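Q: I'm writing up a methods section and want to include an example of the input and output format. Could you take the sequence below and give the corresponding predicted structure tokens, formatted cleanly so I can copy it straight into the document?
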Amino acid sequence: MVCEDPTAFPTTLVIDTSYGSTVSVVGEEPIHEADSRLHVERLQPNIATAIERAGLKPEDITRIVVGTGPAPFTGLRAGIVAAKALAFALNAQLLGQDVLEPQAVWQAERRLRADGGVTSEYRHFVLAVNDARRRQLYCRLYESVIEPADTSGLARVGLPRPVGDMDIAYPNDIVERVNAVVADMLGEDARPIVVDVVGHGVEKYASAWLNLIRRGDLIDDSVLHGAGVEGPILFARTAERHHADGDECPSEPLYLRRPDVSVPNPLKHVLNHGGADRAGSDRGVGEGKGGR
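A: Here is the clean output for your methods example:
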């Protein structure tokens, strides 16, 4: 279960700017900044406050786990740049973690608790989403993985199994894709299937989910915003599991959408004008004439 002893982790700072900003020392209540106009400028003060509230000094931080999106460019970049700079200054380990996978882990934990800590008879899927604006969502479908019971007799949530790639799409298109996947799985497995949808943007596009077959819970929230102290623990634990399995956990941002700016096309030749080279040649001729 997710309620692990935070002292089992190195002194870890979590930074995420995939939706507003969230900063927390693992084991402490996270600090949120929801205002998109302020979260970038408030990020550094919030980091300092989080460390101070934990009774620590910056040099006590030995690991930083940073959210890598997917999310829009500006906000996401601010968090990753801050995490990289801080990790360099403190000589701390830096691990990147996408924000969709912990959503699936969190919901699997909730389901497992509701089932009394024992495995259920159904296959559980989580469609993890994050608001991408422009009427789109970042998304990925995961199947929950429940590991065998330990000595306590309780099962444990493992890292979920991704079903398909991470993507950005319109909600109705997402529903069509998920329905196709579920339909195929229903034909190959007799167990019932349930699909929960979790993340920021679920409520905004509530009408789309009405067409989702095997629809389960609809939760407009995220692990870092809705799980209290447990959220950063789960977020950091997910990254640590990947790292322990040999994943480099890169901190590169996941934008998924191309930037709004682009490289301009080369200047066209107009009236047989030769461009810069021709202009330079003409200047040379003129200068030569003037020198005579």
